Amino acid sequence: MTTHSPAEGTAPPARPTYTEGLTQLGSGGGTQPSAGLEVFPNPHPDRIYHIHIESPEFTSICPVTGQPDFATMVLEYVPGPRCVELKAFKLYLWHFRNEPAFYEDTTNQIVADLVDGLDPRWLRLTSIWNVRGGVYTSVVVEHGDAALATPYPDLRRR
After folding, report:
1. Of these residues, 46, 69, 83, 105, which one is catalytic?
2. Catalytic option among 46, 62, 116, 145
3. CA separation for the pair 34, 94 (Å, rounded)
4. Which pLDDT tens digits describe the chain residue by residue (158 residues)?
5. In sequence order, which ranges of the chain are alpha helices (DSSP H)?
């Protein structure tokens, strides 16, 4: 195998800076809920690849009873020009803690915000709600090119 190293006296090419403009990542004090999503440029915009994010501690408020609702949010997407920054996504989801809304509205609002911020090639959000009154509910919302839908099985269940 042949290795290539830069000519003596020259520096290797710099990697792009993806964190430019991000205010929540590494800010230390950025632990408050936020309705904003921070994104960064897709480091491989010419490649089709899947991103899978699970958030098992989602909380919102039932608009009828005022009781908390709990869910696991499973986000899968094929990025377009941008990717979501994970800490910002966590803080974004956290802001729903005090938002009264039905499951369907909450799931669709999250998808609308993600589509607006990311412009993904394909995206699916599955909200899996904890049992309430003996009924389990899941809401699945997709956006984009269905041909790019993830071919992977559930990554958590083996």
Report:
1. 69
2. 62
3. 7
4. 444 444 556 665 565 666 666 665 555 555 788 889 999 999 999 999 999 999 999 999 999 999 999 999 999 999 999 999 999 999 999 999 989 999 999 999 999 999 999 999 999 999 999 998 899 999 999 999 999 997 876 665 54
5. 86-94, 103-118
Is 116 labeled as catalytic in the residue annotation? no
Q: Where are the beta strands (DSSP E) in 18-80?
A: 39-41, 51-61, 68-78
List C-alpha distances in Å: 156 to 53, 92, 130, 139, 144.
11, 23, 17, 18, 24
CB atoms within 10 A of CB 139: 18
- In the chain, what are the domains? 50-148 (3.30.1130.10)
User: CA–CA separation, 112 vs 24, rounded Å?
Assistant: 21
Distance CA 27, CA 129 (A): 31
Residue 106's CB: how many other CB atoms inside 10 A?
A: 25
Q: Residues 6 or more apart from 22 whose CB is under 8 A from it? A: 38, 40, 85, 88
Active site residue 119: no
On the CB side of 112, CA atoms within 13 Å amount to: 7
Give the pair of three-digit tokens for residue 59.
């909380």
